[in-house]
Structures are given as structure tokens and as C-alpha cells.
């Protein structure tokens, strides 16, 4: 259990690569779990980090999608933690080289243990954590043994939204928001 709620950065003990940190409220009861951190966000060391440019503050493409759609859906933005399964870049090439999961999955479980509602975004988060194909679970509330007692909804990843369309993501957020309000 993480007693210290301060955000700290460290390396993955399996591969030695630096991990990015989460974003948002550390005592939040809602978690949005992406599959992987985008390159821009990784370079900044935090998922969906703010960046500063000549015309003010903006975010990476993934961060932009997330914050825009979360606000649009009317989710309680002050009560959300944003994190990901892969908080460092995925290993290149070999699809089976997922030794880091032995560290990354428990790390994530620790981080979201106080959360009652979880949005799983993207294929890796769904296959590694829910053990179900995203194709048959998209936009649905499902039972996830790993997250027993928590409400889990499946969504596309923000990266997919950038590459395709936003409709499926909006639908999933709408279902997620409805469940959060129902459970209040
Ligand atoms: Zn690693």
C-alpha cells in the first residue's frame, strides 16, 4: 500500500527504464487507466502533462483528448486519477517480452486500490488486466476479478481516438459517467 501520496519518480525494477508518474488526485475514487503513455508525455515524465507554449497551456494529443472529453462528459474532474499500465515505453519488437508486467500490474493495483470506479482504455489495459478481448467489451461495464468490488468500464485509448474517431470513446465515457452517478 502506498502510504505516501506524494508523486515520486523511479525506474522500473525489471528493465531499469525510468517510469513516468500519474496525473491527478492521489486520493481520487475514479481512475482512468490508459494502456500506454504517449511519447510526448513520457518525455515530460507525467501522463497527460501540461505543456507551456507561446500561446498558453496545452497538452499532448492524448492529454488534449482526455481532458476535453472528460469535461464534456461531465465527470467530476476533481476526483480523477489518470494513469497507465505501461508507464515507460513498451519494449521494442518481441511481443512476448512483457516481463515488466510483473512489476507494472502490482504497481497499478496499488495506485488504484482506493478507487471505486475504473475506466480501462485500450487493448493492452483490457487484455492484461481484464483478461478479455476489447472487441467484445468496448463501451460496456464488465466484471474484472483483479478489480473485485470496483466498477469497470471499457473504452478505446486516447491514442486510438486521435487515429480514428471519438464516438466510441464518448459513448464509453457516457456509460462510465452514468454508473458513477448511479452509485453516488
Ligand atoms: Zn520495465
Describe this structure in words.
Helices cover 33% and strands 20% of the residues. By secondary structure, the chain is of the alpha/beta class. The structure holds zinc ion.
Alpha carbon gap, first and last residue: 25 Å
Strands, count: 8
CATH superfamily: Uracil-DNA glycosylase-like domain
Q: Which strand order do you get reading across the main beta sheet?
A: 1-5-2-6-8-7
Task: Return the structural class.
Answer: alpha/beta
| CATH topology title | Uracil-DNA Glycosylase, subunit E
State the low-pLDDT regions, or none. Answer: 1-7
Strand content: 15-25%
Instruction: Domain count, please report it.
Output: 1
What's the helix and strand layout?
Layout: E1 23-24, E2 30-36, H1 39-44, E3 50-53, E4 56-59, H2 61-73, E5 80-86, H3 101-111, E6 117-121, H4 123-130, E7 141-142, E8 151-155, H5 158-163, H6 167-182
Parallel strand pairs: 2-5, 2-6, 6-8
Antiparallel strand pairs: 1-5, 3-4, 7-8
This protein binds zinc ion.
Key terms:
globular; disordered N terminus; two-stranded antiparallel sheet; Uracil-DNA Glycosylase, subunit E; 8 strands; 6 helices; single chain; 184 residues; binds zinc ion; alpha/beta; 20% strand; six-stranded mixed β-sheet
Structure, briefly:
It is built from 6 helices and 8 strands.
